[in-house]
Amino acid sequence: MSFESAGLSPLNASLATGSWLSGAPSGPTVRAVHDEFHGDLLEVSMGPQHPSTHGVFRMVATLDGEKIVKLNPVFGYLHRNHEKLGENTTYLASMPYTDRLDYLCSMTNNWAYALAVEKLAGQAVPERAEYLRIILGELTRLVNHACLVGFLFNDLGTSFTPLLYAFREREKILDLFESLSGSRMMCNYQRFGGCRVDPTPEWLAAVGKIVDGFPRFLDEYEQLLTGNEILLARTQGVGRLAPELAVSAGITGPMLRASGVNYDIRKVDGYGLYPRFEFRVPLGEHGDTYDRYMMRILEMRESVGILQQALRDLPAGPIMDPKAKLRGFRPKAGEAYGRIEGPKGEIGFYLISDGSPNPYRYRVRPPSFVNLTVLEDMCLGHTIADAVVILGSIDIVLGEVDR
Amino acid sequence: MDTPEQLRDRLLARFPGAQIVLVPNPGPAAQPSLLLDAAHAVEAARFLRDASGLRFDYCSNVTGIDWPEKEIVETTKTTVPDPAGGPPKVVEQKTKRVQSGYLEAVYHLYSMELKHGPVILRLRTANRTDRNAVPSLTPIWRSCEFQEREAYDLFGIVFEGHPDLRRILMWDEFKDHPMRKDYVAPDDFEWEPTPHGEVLERAKAHYPAPPPQEGGAV
Can you tell me the ipTM of this complex? Predict the structure, then answer.
């Protein structure tokens, strides 16, 4: 494990030229289904109703003995045409819908959407609101990563204990969200040009208490999990993702950095006030499932640092831009793409305005949908039990994949 | 990083026969996009990915846009002199012109190696019905694989050269493309023909309704 210094390794020529498409065999190849010498291939349809597929997700795996030789992800069971809904309502009315995309990270979804609309309309955000966004965004990252690690261990078969440790901490943070925004998970907190509610000093003190106690939870969590024999045996070297393939396939977030590619949108774009904060970007070396687990733990530790700086420096002032218009909001004709580093990767919104109160085009760039592209590549040659763990380490939420 | 104008000039210098147009963005974000022609799109995309100083190795967002055909009313004013010698009259003439519709695929490119971007690429189809194909950029960036499938599914843009162009979010038997502006949702998504109705009709034919009784109902 290292920090940032590794940089991007030079692109492997074969992968950069797209030869993965021409069918260069990277694992076992699919042979004839009926083969009297080797036995039959077995097609297993796993899901959509299966506890370890994290929702209504289906994997159609072709097995040769125990090895996966082909895997076809099938989804769309939760599709409700979110983008069409966004085009049929006003800009502000889509804000609560974005909560429902990735329902673990409603604060960052709100933030990405607000950022895109602010870009579209050329709006400014006051300093205090930017700080609040960072505080809530990083709290969301803590919630998401802690839960992901818990779910990953559930997939490993460690029967719920790590998940309950994570849920204990998550409840504390969700209580904060509830007392601030009125809802635990569907926060609907951001507005174009600021935030909705100004937190009280008591709320900020409560955040400070939880943030200061979080490293202790992480130590406890890591003591329980990181050196765990089951984890090491089941995840090290499993589901390797080459950095070249990860870049080409548009993988973002902790999954990309686990493969050693130094790309964090908080650093690259410097949106919000992130350039003012000191934090490190953890990078993996092997790109396997264990590195993806470790990325989450290390990012949580960095997030705690960001939160402490934000709580220390939080300025007084307005939380909404006084020029911001909530009613009768009609941005000028044009288009904008706003993206942030969500806990799962790059979440972006692409908006086209034709000058009317509704967006002409409203597009969500979902991180976990794009991250699923390489599921088959990572699973080839592993067993179906490993496929469950690899899927768990991608960190998908079907509300966002299917939209 | 090159400005979009410089990028267009670089592409035109590299591909002399190509038609590359800068599409302006009137909004505050103000970033114009590059409209590529179908014949050179794949090669131009490969150039953007591989050329030194550009290295757009990461295609972040791929999506479709539907631009249905719209009627444009143009008003022309002509001044007609009055033969009686009075002040000249202004006659307004309205002409209607139908601008043909098209589908558009939009790609947002960034560089993970050089950490710059975005560059926005656009590809346009000839119309919305039968000539609705654009070249697929999946051979250049693998991240287009699922997102182009989604644009095919929801908008009906056919990506030529895509390795596995199937519906991804809607079910395979679904006929229409729901993100198009003129899409009309059916009254009942879950209706499917069942033997029930047919059986009922046959039963009715087999046992004809009793003739109406004289003198009204008893």
Answer: 0.84
